[in-house]
Write a structure and sequence with these properties.
With 137 residues, this protein is mainly α. Helices cover 59% and strands 0% of the residues. The longest helix is centred in the first third of the chain and has 25 residues. Keywords: Membrane, Transmembrane, Transmembrane helix.
Amino acid sequence: MTTHTLNPDDFDRLSGAERDKVAEDEANVRKGFWKKMRGAARHVPFAEDAVASYYAALDRQTPLRVRATLFGALAYFILPFDLTPDLLPLIGFGDDAAVLMGALKLLSGHVKPEHYEAARSALDPDGRPTTEDDRPA
């Protein structure tokens, strides 16, 4: 059974398909986010924004629809199937950045200073995760 951070009451407000998609995105993000960051952080200029979004998505104080949107954007970032292969230097993360930055622009009031503080603590000065272990949720 997948452990998720959404309250049962929050799930009640979603349709069945929405519930399934949010739960799937959250599971994918929890499973693959730090692995992707270890491999990609030095190549992406938006590493701090991605990590702050991760923490905002896991924060129970963040509204449900915001969390669902952030999980969707982060899932797009970590999943291997996207419009531009991430292996292409410089442009490979362009579509990932566009999706994540679009979500952040719309939701900027919900990614709080404490999420950015946590992101800076989780990343070294070069924007890489500070440990090789997956970070706890």
